[in-house]
Amino acid sequence: MVKADVGIDIDVRRCIGSGQCVLIAPDIFTQSPVEGTVRLLIGPPLPRHRLRTVEEAVAQCPVGALNTWLKTDRDGSEQS
Q1: pTM of the full predicted structure?
Q2: Was domain 2-79 assigned CATH 3.40.50.300?
Q3: Least packed by Cβ within 10 Å: which of 13, 51, 60, 66?
C-alpha cells in the first residue's frame, strides 16, 4: 500500500508579503504581523482535500516563495 503526504516549503527570504496565498487559502496560510511574510497554520502534512487550493496558492505567488512536495511511503520505505 502506498501512502502519500503533501507538504509545502516556504522561502521566507523570497516572500514579499503580497498575501495572495492568504487570500486563496486563509485556513492554511497566514502572514507574520511583524515581517508580513507567509506562515503555515497547519501541517505538514497538509490535508489531501486541500491540495488543489494549495497548488493554486503556489501558482499565484508572485515571487515563487512556495513549493509543494509529495512524500510517499511504500511498505515503510520513503520514495520521492
Answers
A1: 0.79
A2: no
A3: 13
